Amino acid sequence: MLQAIGLTSARHRGLPPAVDDLTFEAGSGCVTALLGPPGSGKTAALRLMLELEPGRGVTYFRGRPLHRVAHPAREVGVLLGDVPGHPARTARGQLRMLCAATGVPASRADELLDAVGLSGLGDQRIGTLSLGMDRRLALACALLGDPHTLILDEPAEGLTSREADWLHGMLGSHADRGGTVLYTTHDAKRAARSAGHVVTIDAGRLVADQSVADFSRTRLRPRVAVRSPHAARLAAIVSREARADRRSVEVVTEASSSRLSVYGSSCAEIGDTAYRHGLPVHQLADEIGDTSPEAGPGPGPDAAAPAPRLESSAAPPPSPLSEPLPVARAGEGEGRLPPRIRRRPARGPLRPVRYELRRLFGVRTTTLIIAVALVASAALSVLLGRNGGTPLPNVLAAWPSLLPLPPAALGAGLLGALSFGDEFRYPALAAGRGTVPRRLGLLLAKLAVSAGVALVLALLVVLASAESLRLVYGGDLVKVPSNAVSLAVSWSGLTVGCAWAGLLAAGIFRVTAAGVAAVLAVPVLMVPLIESMPKAPTARSMSGLPGRLRELAWLQWPHEADRWVAAAVRVVAHPVGAALTLSLSVLVCAYLFMTLRGRVRW
Fold first, then answer.
1. 594, containing H or E segment
2. SS3 call for 219
């Protein structure tokens, strides 16, 4: 059961709230339609329930507010608009990625694809799906955690009648299994056909809370739509004959002077009347008109005649649990305000490493970047090997002096920037909030995965360069240098550092371009800045540092590790290493500040 109590939107610039003291219930085992015209506050009400917007009130999902639910995706499934996925990702890949975020097995993706009728389109790209297939995929995303409650905003908007019937059939099946379904719509006839309970709102306030039988009886009336060039004369004749025959007939002239809506009559009677008086008729059809106050007259076939407002007294009395809290108003004393709704930060994925791996390799962009880096590195290494004056490490790394960074470091930085850049561009984790959850687990997963990909790319580049040199110039050119350990540490540190710089910068500024700019800023800005610093005439040696570190550490590492520690120190002492270390330190501090800024209250 869903219970919304006292929902009230925050006021913006003195404007009236989009939702004003809205209280209603959506019972288990029933489909509830939240009915209202565009702009009536339906979407704002859903966002208040889901704690996506600030305001006042409280919504209980089986007795608990959403922020008290341990795993929200397993309690509430949400469909707000289109699927917020990367257009190049497949439907199956999108669901499997969200399976890792929800904490359910990956096999659940195939089960839901079959349930929503997309079993044969699992490898279809999201960007190529039609509107109907996109809604099916969005419904599958909402059902991933097998939630008890489904909340959907205009799910049938833009769909054909057949697709809408299928969608509402799925919602009815979910309710038949004991679930709660709440969806918004502006179509009264669709609500009467597909829902078991209808809550009507207007201007953010409750108008009626009725069962579908009461709704159809009190708010929907059959009528005859008539279009004639002599509509005024025909209306007068029909009204006069109805009074003479003592029949209850109501004739309403629509906004267009050639259209009439006749209540209490039939097409045969209106047609006979027009024929007897020689009046031409261009349209004569039976319709169901919505008599709610928001349905105004219009020339379309679904236009409704105006009728007096139906008071909410037709609704059944609310249960004690759903009794609205008193709201303080001007001139009414103190009163008690309903609890404040705070915009909660989005939750991170339950399985962050698995989620990040599926997100990274779920699109072809990752493979394309790695392939371009390998091809460019192999080509550059062959060109550099032709000149005997280039050192072998630079040849294997494919790093000519003209480039600020080698292709492998640029590729790793771009992959790191896309790690957060794509999250903000296609926010699958927090579509309604518009931001990516700044969780420690998600950050550590992205750092670990990006570092692993950077190390693999660095190794592949060295192997591809060595093999290219062997094929072109023979095996005499490639030899293992004496300082191979130090070179391996520096090469790994460069690629991993670039990946982390791009990742952190994109997470701070929420755009991929910022991550790429941060990677390029290391050799272009930071290295010249460090090299321009004045140097002392005498420099102290750091020899013996590994031994002193071993004395401070609680755990005694083997003496063979001293070479790796010394190699890492030499890497940091290098201008590029120092610049990269300084950049990463600044970016980590900035990211932590951005993370804590929304939580700390001064």
1. helix 575-597
2. helix
CB-based burial label for 70 (10 Å; 0-12, 13-18, 19+): exposed
Token code pair at residue 516: 């790429």
Helix (H) or strand (E) holding 120: none
Contact 191, 294 (CB under 8 A): no
In this prediction, residue 319 carries a pLDDT of 37
Q: Using alpha carbons, list the distances in angstroms from residue 414 to 31, 131, 424, 445, 520.
A: 47, 32, 15, 17, 10
Q: Which residue, 462, 463, 470, 461, is CA-closest to 385?
A: 470
| Confidence band of 539 (pLDDT split at 50, 70, 90) | low
Instruction: Say how many CA atoms lie within 13 Å of 351 toward its Cβ.
Output: 16
User: Where does the pLDDT of residue 110 fall: very low under 50, low under 70, confident under 90, or very high at 90 and above?
Assistant: very high
Q: 210: helix, coil or strand?
A: strand
pTM value is 0.77
Residue carrying structure tokens 């698995």: 354
Q: Are 140 and 113 in contact (CB under 8 A)?
A: yes
**pLDDT(533) > 60:** yes
Round to whole Å and give the CA distance between 397 and 394.
5
Sign of CA pseudo-dihedral 348, 352, 355, 356: positive
Instruction: Tell me which H or E stretch contains 158.
Output: none
